[in-house]
Amino acid sequence: ASILHFTANPAQQGDDAQYYEYFGDGLLVIKSGHIRDCGDAKELLASYQAAGLSLDVTDYSGKLIMPGFIDTHTHYPQTDVIGSYGTQLLDWLNTYTFPMEARFADLDLANDVANFFCDELLRNGTTTAMVFATVHENSIDAIFNAANSRDMRLIAGKVMMDRNAPENLCDTAQISYQQSRDLIQKWHGKDRLSYAITPRFAPTSTEKQLELAGQLFAEFDDVYLQSHVAENTDEVAWVKELFPWSRSYLDVYDHYGLLGKRAMYAHCIYLDEQDRQRMADTQTAMAFCPTSNLFLGSGLFDMNTAQVMGIPVGMATDVGGGTSFSMLQTLNEAYKVLQMNEQSLSPFQAFYQATLGSAQSLQLEHKIGNFEVGKEADFIVLDLTATPLMERRMAHTHNLKEQLFALMILGSDRNIQATYTMGESRYQKHAA
Ligand code: GUN
Ligand code: FE
């Protein structure tokens, strides 16, 4: 197979700097679930042979191997409301999302959806995700058990929500603090799982709840925090009403100590210069959710400013406001969002963002995101000619850059031939 992985952010390199490695006939050597070597197949085979070491080789000739995709913001309980018609954010939450999330009090349902969700991630080549559960403690056990049985690296948290939502979906500030704390102790750091403190968004939390979320974030060194910010203009106006003292929407989170490394904010569309500077200064990450931002009519993300200011950016599907589990489809829509915003997304930048860039936004670049020796062996095998149209289109590409661009514009789950976590096969596409 050929092998592609990234070693640096293309946007922060000069024009001829080498920010990726590509081997036309490559070999990825895995030992005990980790990367042992990555390079030219002939050279590596010769050196292993010379050392008297035997390799058990799987042949993926004609295919492309890349690191597994990383989805930095998604909601597993929204799997079954994906593609619900006719609304923007606040109506969509009330009409479709909250009624579905209320059903997750049922552990059997939560387990069923969590298992489907993890299989669907793997079927789309995604090996790590940062995930919202629901307000129910059960919903966290379901998603962590599902991820763990597939050896996926996964970050998730119980939603904290104590106002402006249906009563059966609300906790209280104190209960949400205690339950989140218990769940951190139960799950955080177990195998490949990490916990994220998860206040849904400012409008559904009281000031007391945000304060306790901040207290919890300060109490534990390496837990994550995830929320939504500045997605929709009606939402932004509502936050101004609910928190009249705040300078901006982001300022509400800042006030309660909810910014910093390992904090991930979905959307980040309606931010001003000062907000962006705070995110850069605190290294708070943005999750770019293009399919969701288009589907819910939310607005256009500003990628260039984030890059120039050094704000970490992760790619995200935001299922079920987002319309696809596929990172390839997500890159396709990201390109179009940026086109509408007079920006661009080169294919190298795009695949960097979906792998190493997202790993960096989650402070996980020492564990996943590329094929550096010692990292966890999460990778995918791509079939660039999985459809009749793609077969024709690829025949008219002249170089890697053109191939990658056609892949991200035309590609989908059909291009994922196989997905591996910790060096083990978790998904193989059946022959047609
Ligand atoms: N803001 C608050 N909750 C949600 C959610 O579930 N999805 C999206 N897209 N935005 C939100
Ligand atoms: Fe979301």
Gyration radius, in Å: 21 Å
Q: Which small-molecule ligands are present, each listed once?
A: guanine, fe (iii) ion
**Portion in strands:** 15-25%
The CATH class of the largest domain is: Alpha Beta
Distance between the termini: 20 Å
Low-confidence stretches: none
- pLDDT average, as an integer? 98
What level of helicity do the residues show? 25-40%
Architecture per CATH nomenclature, i.e. the level-2 architecture of the largest domain: Alpha-Beta Barrel
Number of strands: 17
Q: Classify the fold: give the CATH topology of the largest domain.
A: TIM Barrel
Counting helices, strands and paired strands, the structural category is alpha/beta
Biggest β-sheet strands, sense, barrel = 9 strands, parallel
> What name goes with the CATH superfamily of the largest domain?
Metal-dependent hydrolases
Explain what this protein looks like in three dimensions.
This protein has helices at residues 41-50, 89-102, 107-123, 137-149, 173-187, 207-219, 233-242, 249-255, 273-282, 290-295, 303-309, 327-340, 347-361, 388-395, 400-410; strands at 2-6, 20-23, 26-31, 34-40, 64-67, 69-75, 126-132, 153-157, 159-160, 193-199, 224-229, 263-267, 285-288, 313-315, 379-382, 416-421, 424-428. The protein is an alpha/beta fold. The protein folds into 2 domains: 2-67 and 372-428, Urease, subunit C, domain 1, CATH 2.30.40.10; 69-361, Alpha-Beta Barrel (TIM Barrel), CATH 3.20.20. The strands form 3 sheets. Strands 6, 7, 8, 9, 10, 11, 12, 13 and 14 form a 9-stranded parallel sheet that branches. A 6-stranded mixed sheet has the order 2-1-5-15-16-17. The chain has a two-stranded antiparallel ribbon with strand order 3-4.
